[in-house]
Each structure stands twice: as structure tokens, then as C-alpha cells.
Amino acid sequence: MQHFNAYEMAVQQFELAADKLDLSEDMRQILRAPKRELTVHFPVRLDDGSIKTITGYRVQHNVNRGPAKGGIRYSPDVTLDEVKALAMWMTWKCAVVGIPYGGAKGGVICDPKHMTRGELERLTRRFTTEISIIIGPHSDIPAPDVNTNSQVMAWMMDTYSMHSGFSVPAVVTGKPLSIGGSEGRNEATANGVLFVTRRAAHRAGMPLQGAHVSIQGFGNVGAIASRLFHNEGCKIVAVSDTTGGIYNEVGLDPAAVQRHKMAHGTVATYPAARRMGSAEVLEVPCDILVPAATEGVITEENAERVQARIIAEAANGPTTPEADTILFKKGCIVIPDILANAGGVTVSYFEWVQDLQSFFWHVEEITLRLEGIMNRAFDAVTGMAERSHCDLRLGANMLAISRVAEATLVRGIYP
Ligand SMILES: NC(=O)C1=CN([C@@H]2O[C@H](COP(=O)(O)OP(=O)(O)OC[C@H]3O[C@@H](n4cnc5c(N)ncnc54)[C@H](O)[C@@H]3O)[C@@H](O)[C@H]2O)C=CC1
Ligand SMILES: O=C(O)CCC(=O)C(=O)O
Per the database record, which ranges form the Glutamate/phenylalanine/leucine/valine/L-tryptophan dehydrogenase C-terminal domain (predicted)? Predict the structure, then answer.
């Protein structure tokens, strides 16, 4: 396995776009560096009475276009560099869809699969307290990401509110509906992936009806995407999670796979399907590939073997710059993460706006507004890529970085 560092990759992607935009070195320095990096070490009492010291991070990359925004992930593999990369991608993502936020991300080094509900709640409450010095409804608004969910957001909201003395629903998004969550947030990321894939498929003259789709990752984003693409008439030929992958060229029933996953904790033992490794689903014959798991999975080592015509990046950072070059040469259309998965943060923005106004919208309105934003962003990115004779990732990064650079210039740099 080659050395992979998400932050180095994010900076490499940034420099490619900055070169193409002919950005000055001064501006590069401002936009490259994270604004704040908070590392916290804090004790959590485990159910057996012992104490474990846990490490967590919150990084705010850039706040020139608005408050920092981005999810929190729980994983044994979290590193500060990974969180810095994810925070930088959030800055570009919010800019590419034109929502008034900067970028942030958080991570806690822990293994939630081996923790009880009580332990997770205590960890979440203590982590929230530790980062409360930089989060807030007008400064930095967390949301769910890998291994966190609406329950974790509810504990965060409650902890922050306890310290404030009153309820502050707008401090996090992705909350349960009963405490100020938004209709449509759960499905938002997958919905956004579908909207931009529809548009890309149309441009490529590929009907979605009957298209073969392979999905890596079967969590919040991947499982819901499998259902939405299935409803669209696609055949879901392969899915995987950390335990392995399954393939059936006739098509899998996503609802049945989901029930199997709920009952057995894995997709890998689902019957009537050929078993394979988690990463093998990236290489199966298909029209559309949806990486929806983690970073750095499509590399120069396997890019040549990817058979899909369209890759819709539901995950953040799944494709390395070396793989991008190979895929572009092959004529594969990569819808980049900062565009493809921006549906999640877009509906988070809707949730925040609703919380601040205490006025809630119907799901139809949310879906319609989301589709409009995703389609306009897709058209803006393809327009930039065409004018600049480059792939969609470079087009998206150029668009996003130029918007953040413009905001930086117009605000002025104090001498
Ligand atoms: N939840 C959200 O709203 C958003 C999530 N994303 C990104 O989407 C990706 C997935 O996030 P969620 O679905 O929320 O997380 P999740 O924790 O709900 O699900 C992650 C899934 O990926 C699987 N997985 C992890 N590593 C894997 C590997 N190496 N091979 C195969 N499967 C693997 C896990 O088993 C699980 O099924 C992440 O990159 C996340 O940053 C992006 C935008 C918004
Ligand atoms: O919903 C949000 O605020 C951010 C979601 C997120 O972490 C992401 O888009 O990667």
C-alpha cells in the first residue's frame, strides 16, 4: 500500500487549481493554511469504571465567506492531517454550491463499534464541552459524518445548550426533527449525488434507466444512495462495507440488503450474491461508480481497472490526483466530492436557516431548493471545466477557490 496523506492530497489539488487561476503566492498562503486547529485530550469514564483519555480535533479551515461548517467523525484512524484535509474540502464545497459558510471538520479517535451507548454519550458531551470554545451558531456549526448520526448531534446540541442556559438548536445540524432538525437532511447527501449524476448522465447520453451502479460504503450516504438509484430504475450490481463486498449482475434489492445489514451487521453475507473484497466493488463492470466510504481508495494502482463511465464521489477525497489523470485520459467523468456530496451541507444550511428563524419548511420545498442548487452548481462547474479545458475536479476547485479568493480580497487584508 502506498503512502497516503489526505492533507497532502488536498494541498496538491489546491495548488493545481491555484496554478490554473494564476493565483498570487500571497493569496495561496492565506487560502492554503487552516485558520484554527484545536486538539483536545479529555477523560471519558467507561462502563467498567475505568477512565480513558481520548483525543479529538476541530479544525476551521477558512471563514471568509461565513461561519465554519462541517461534520464530526468518530474513527480509530482519525488524524489531524485527515481533519485538516476534510476542513479544506468543506471550504471549497460550500463555495461551489454558493452557501454562506466557510469550512471546518472535526474528528475523535475512538472506535464507536466497540463502545456502549452510555460511553458514546459521555464521550460526545465531554468533546462538545472541550470544543465549545470555538463552536457556536454564528461561528462554527458541526454536523454528522462517518460514525456519527442524529443522536450524536442531539447530545451535542443539549450539551452546548446546558452551558448557555437556553436551547441553541442552530449550533449543530443533522439533529432529530423533534429538536429542530430538518426534513430531508438524512437523505440530502444521497439525493444530491443522484441529482448531479442525473445531469452528468444526460450530458453523456447515458440513460439512468437500467444503468449498472456499484457503491462502496453502505452507511448513511451509500445505503440511501442505493435506494434512490434503484428507485430511479438503475440496477445496483454491487455494494460493500468494511467487512466486504457483494456483486450480482442481475441487480441487488437495496431494501433487502439493508435489512440484512441491520440483522447481521454486514452486507458481505447477503445471499444470492458473489462475495468480494470491499475494494473490489470499485472495479466491477458498471456504468456508475459511487465511492461512499472513505478517502484515497481510487489510486494510480487501481484507476486503470475502474470500468465505470461516471464516478459520483459521495465520499470525501476518494480519488487521488494521480488517479484523476488516468481517469480523465480514459474518458471517465468524475463528479468531484465537493460538488457531488454537497447536498448534505446544503440541507444543513437549510436546517440552520430554519432554526435561526424558528420557521420550518416542508420536505417538498427542501428537495426542490436542493435540486435547484445542485443543478446550478453542476452547470457552473461544467462551464468552468469546458472554458478551462480541464476535468470537473479542477473546474470545481477553480470555481470554489476563486469565490473564496474574491471574498478574501473584498474584505481586505489588514496591513
Ligand atoms: N453523512 C453526510 O451527510 C456526508 C457524508 N459524506 C462522506 O460520505 C462518506 C460516508 O459517510 P457516511 O455514510 O455518513 O458514514 P457512515 O459511517 O454512515 O458509513 C460509512 C460506510 O462506509 C463503510 N466503509 C468504511 N470504510 C470502508 C472501506 N474501506 N471499504 C468499504 N466500506 C467502507 C462503512 O462500513 C459504512 O458502511 C464519508 O466520506 C463522508 O465524509 C459527505 C458529505 C456528507
Ligand atoms: O452537513 C454539514 O454541515 C457537513 C457535512 C459534511 O461533513 C460533509 O459534507 O463532508
Answer: 182-412
Q: Which of 290, 324, 340 is the last residue of a domain?
A: 340
Are 141 and 268 part of one and the same domain?
A: no
In a domain, 393, yes or no: no
Is the same domain home to 227 and 280?
Answer: yes
Q: Tens-of-pLDDT digits for all 415 residues of the chain?
A: 568 999 999 999 999 999 999 999 999 999 999 999 999 999 999 999 999 999 999 999 999 999 999 999 999 999 999 999 999 999 999 999 999 999 999 999 999 999 999 999 999 999 999 999 999 999 999 999 999 999 999 999 999 999 999 999 999 999 999 999 999 999 999 999 999 999 999 999 999 999 999 999 999 999 999 999 999 999 999 999 999 999 999 999 999 999 999 999 999 999 978 999 999 999 999 999 999 999 999 999 999 999 999 999 999 999 999 999 999 999 999 999 999 999 999 999 999 999 999 999 999 999 999 999 999 999 999 999 999 999 999 999 999 999 999 999 999 976 5
Pocket of ligand 1 (CB under 6 A): 144-147, 189, 216-222, 240-242, 278, 292-294, 314-316, 341, 344
> Is 266 annotated in some ligand binding site?
no
d(CA 413, CA 415): 6
CA 92, 96, 101: angle at the middle one, nearest 5?
Answer: 65
What is the CB < 6 Å shell around ligand 2?
Answer: 69-71, 93, 143, 145, 173-174, 316, 341, 344-345, 348
User: Looking at the predicted complex, does its ipTM rise above 0.85?
Assistant: yes
Rounded to the nearest angstrom, the distance between the alpha carbon of 341 and the centre of ligand 1 is 11
CATH number for the domain including 89?
3.40.50.10860
The answer to whether 93 is a known ligand-binding residue is yes
Count of the separate structural domains present in the chain: 2
Read off the CATH number of the domain in which 269 is found.
3.40.50.720
Q: Tell whether 150 is in a known binding site.
A: no
The model's pTM: 0.98
| Spacing, Cα 216 to ligand 1 middle (Å) | 9
Q: Which among 189, 247, 283 is the best mutation to test ligand 1's pocket, defined by most ligand atoms within 8 Å of the CB? A: 189
- Residue 35 annotated among the catalytic residues of the structure: no
Residues 51 and 162 in one domain: yes
Sequence-separated contacts (24+) of 146-150 with Cβ below 8 Å:
146/71, 146/73, 146/74, 146/75, 146/219, 146/294, 147/73, 147/74, 147/75, 147/112, 147/113, 148/71, 148/72, 148/73, 148/74, 149/174, 149/220, 150/174, 150/175, 150/176, 150/181, 150/186
Domain ranges, residue 149: 34-172
Pick the catalytic residue from 84, 105, 175, 261: 105
Ligand at minimal distance from the CA of 337 is 1
The residue from 285, 311, 340 where one domain ends is 340
The cell for 127 is: 468533546
